[in-house]
């Protein structure tokens, strides 16, 4: 069975290349706003590690990119195009991912659709459905692979052309959590734990069960690692409070 890894030079797909024993990699330049940074990261990783990466510009989805960098149906498009090249398509999702087109169930549905319409078996899957980002980085380091190469990856949804990680987006926050929990000090334009949204949104959301338990545990472990003390939980108003 022929394999291909959908590769973005991110903190998930780079360890996946090692985990899957270095399969051919495929990058789709979708015209999205941080594609220049991804292309630069790919070049750096190819030079350092000898990754075999094919770059394709056959699909421009930039007009559908939302303000939060999400492109609806992105993984459906990528899987259909990759199916022209391989029977088994690796697209990296991690434990707890549950967006419309990135979850174990979604990947099974996409696989079945392409199989039915192409008339041949096509399988879309991730090697990391049972692992968190922190655990993926731990696995990588456990193989004796260089931590410095992880810092060549790019995982940020900033809107300008700067090559540094902004530290003020959800992608940067997840990157920081997985690295700091493995003892890696990574550069960011702004320290992610100082991002106002961490205290205003993420701390309450992690406490109230908005996110899975494993996400909350890793989030608070990372804050503890840098000595960040989250604000105390807000107490519900009482009748007496309302009379003041």
Tally the helices.
10
Structural class designation: alpha/beta
Oligomer: single chain
Biggest sheet strand line-up: 3-2-1-4-5
Low-confidence stretches: 237-244
In the residues, how many domains can be counted?
A: 2
Q: How would you sum up the global shape?
A: globular
Spatial separation of the terminal alpha carbons: 71 Å
CATH topology-level fold name of the largest domain: Rossmann fold
Query: What is the succession of H and E elements?
Result: EHEHEHEHEHHHHHH
CATH class of the largest domain: Alpha Beta
Average pLDDT level:
94
Biggest β-sheet strands, sense, barrel: 5 strands, parallel
Task: Please supply descriptive tags for the structure shown above.
single chain; alpha/beta; Rossmann fold; 2 domains; 5 strands; 7% strand; disordered C terminus
Report on the architecture of this protein.
The protein has 244 residues and is of the alpha/beta class. The chain has two domains: 3-125, Rossmann fold, CATH 3.40.50.620; 155-225, no CATH class. Helix content is 41%, strand content 7%. The protein contains ten helices and five strands, in the order βαβαβαβαβαααααα. It has helices at residues 13-19, 35-49, 74-82, 104-118, 133-142, 147-150, 170-180, 196-207, 213-225, 239-242, and strands at residues 3-6, 25-28, 53-56, 88-90, 123-125. A five-stranded parallel beta sheet has the order 3-2-1-4-5, sandwiched between helices. α1 crosses α5 (133-142) and α7 (170-180) packs across α9 (213-225). It is globular. The protein starts with a strand and ends with a helix.
